[in-house]
Amino acid sequence: xSQSTSQERPVDLFEQGIAPWAQRVRSGELTFLQTxxxxxxxxxxxxxxxxxxxxxxxxxxxxxxxxxxxxxxxxDLGPFMGLPVGIKDIxxxxxxxxxxxxxxxLSDLGLSEGSVVKTLRAAGAVILGKTKTVEFAxxxxxxxxxxxxxxxxxxxxxxRMPGGSSxxxxxxxxxxxxxxxxxxxxxxxxxxxxxxxxIVGHKTSCGRWPLDGIFSLSTTLDSVGPLCRNVxxxxxxxxxxxxxxxxxxxxxxGLRLGIVDDLFFDNIDPAIAADFERVCQLLESQGAVRVxxxxxxxxxxxxxFSAIVPAELLNSLTPERFSxxxxxxxxxxxxxxxxxxxxxxxxxxxxxxxRRVLIEQAAKTFNDVDLWLSPTCPVLAMPVADFSDIAKxxxxxxxxxxxxxxxxxxxxxxxxxxxxAGLPTGxxxxxxxxxxxxxxxxxxxxxxxxxxx
Length: 453
What we know:
Layout lengths: L17 H9 L5 H14 L6 E3 L3 H15 L11 E5 L26 H8 L3 E6 L35 H8 L5 E5 L6 H7 L2 E4 L20 E5 L2 H12 L13 E5 L9 H16 L3 E5 L7 H17 L1 H7 L5 H8 L6 H21 L5 E5 L14 H7 L7 H5 L2 E7 L8 E7 L3 H17 L1
Parallel strand pairs: 2-3, 2-4, 7-8, 7-9
Antiparallel strand pairs: 1-3, 4-6, 5-6, 5-10, 9-11, 10-11
Helix pairs in contact: 2-3, 7-15, 9-12
């Protein structure tokens, strides 16, 4: 990782996670107001990171002061009380505009603040602002020609891709500008930026969190979840939104690590392959067992994704609206969305039917393994300037190669850092839908082993 300090590096209050920060507040070392001001200062001093689309500075400070007063009067709402958070700019937040990563006027979509944001408010969280997103949440690199591309904070000298589409949420979290941020994941849009910015990203099971108040890229594949600093944070957030606690594992002896050779190791950067092999050996040293899994059907991910997502995006926008705004949309996003015009009803329904078959087939593999394990992204965070080279840009688009299968096969998934030095690399765990708590429990154990090495 670059050690440059060409941009300011304020004190990171959340480096160790949410719980240690919350304890500092309750010990009297910090206040919620001081925390929020520090976050706002971090954003102001690091404008080049460009993580936020909208911030109303007065609202967060007013909310933080109110939380300080409540805490002083004996009302403690828990670990999220007074915690500054970021919200991806496809989610409606009262008092802040929602731009969907676009220059187009979509104010007539009729969305109102949804259950996820209301849950955060009820927990006492301080909404710092709306974070940048790829236009309409369709894009793996994080590049947005329409509204600007956040700067990946792992390299303060070179503008590297932050991953997408939840680009701003990842950058803000990685840079310590918020305690955590919300993103959405339709084909990797939480896990990709988490991987490339060196943090944790949880793609929740479809339907586990409510999606009201959130722009729909794909009614079939959309999910919402957190980008955060560690697995313990992800577990706290999971409990907040589901009421389900994440159990602590005594160890990983006998855990069967499913390694699907198909697709997941294609086009892989040597540094990522080396990190993955090192981590697998670490897990094996603690009693885990690698088990090969044959599932060549994962190669169908491009065909299925292209038959489902663009059609559903056009349905959300309406074909007429998209045609009217298409010339002003980010060129990559526009080209991918326009595929929806060529998808027949027959092709769409056939893809949906094939997906259901593959979900059943993938589920059967878990009779022999406990999880699927792979690198999260096959590529490192590439310089944005390199994207003028078509070959390099095409390689950058491979960021979602390993994450799309999790959406298409109806799995929950988490990405956690696995690198020791250099640019971040990510370890991806995938399990069947609604095994989120068990998956996070395993991820927590893995994180402890990897971090201790």
